[in-house]
Amino acid sequence: MSEIRIRPQKEGDRNRLAELSCLCFSGAPWFSAMSVEEKLRRHDDYRSRQDAMIVVAVCGNQIVGAQIGFALIAAPEIARLLPCTKKGDYYICEGFVAEPYRGQGIAHRLRIAMDRWMKDQGFLRRIVRISTQSNLAALRRHGFRVVVEKAIK
Q1: pTM for this structure?
Q2: What stretches of 25-148 show up as alpha helix (H) in DSSP?
Q3: Are 127 and 92 in contact (CB under 8 A)?
Q4: CA-CA distance, 15 to 55, in Å (whole number)?
Q5: Within a 10 A sphere around the Cβ of 20, how many other Cβ atoms?
Q6: pLDDT band, very low/low/confident/very high, at 41 (cuts 50, 70, 90)
Q7: CA pair distance 16, 136, nearest whole angstrom
Q8: Separation of alpha carbons 20 and 135, rounded Å
Q9: What are the tens digits of pLDDT across the range 82-116?
């Protein structure tokens, strides 16, 4: 298997990123039926928000994972759900790794790259949206704590 590189998303990654996101969220427990076109629109919305950043994991020429985020103040629909938000908060709205590449620390490397970028931009805290208990367990192992548990539709 080729070496995994972590880098910022490039414009040419747009379609593959949407396709991989659809694939990663199509199975249990999500069963998302979102089309690639809908994902493209959603990712374009994310990219248009204040301080948006997308980091990708690449194996050879293939995108195998990503993490997407933006300033929490650019997401008032999320900020209002939290008990205390601050100007320096950053919201991670999506993170995913292709099935054959899971369990290799790629999500952790994506998080470290995003953390470095956030720190360089002056962000102080990350807010992470998770959708499975296994994600929660992994984040707790890395020192994260639950601030609020709410279903977001």
Answers
A1: 0.82
A2: 36-48, 76-79, 106-121, 133-141
A3: yes
A4: 15
A5: 22
A6: very high
A7: 27
A8: 18
A9: 777 778 888 888 889 999 999 999 999 999 999 99
In degrees, to the nearest 5, what angle opens at C-alpha 100 toward C-alphas 128 and 118?
30
Block residue for tokens 């248009």: 48
Q: Is 30 helix (H, G, I), strand (E, B) or coil?
A: coil
| 58/49 Cα distance (integer angstroms) | 24
Residue 4, number of CB atoms within 10 A of its CB: 18
Q: Does residue 44 contact residue 70 with C-beta atoms inside 8 Å?
A: no
Token code pair at residue 88: 């320096």
Tokens in use for 11?
């414009």
- Classified as helix, coil or strand, 70 is strand
The pLDDT tens digits for 107-150 are 999 999 999 999 999 998 887 766 655 566 666 676 666 655 55
Tokens 């690639």, located at residue: 36
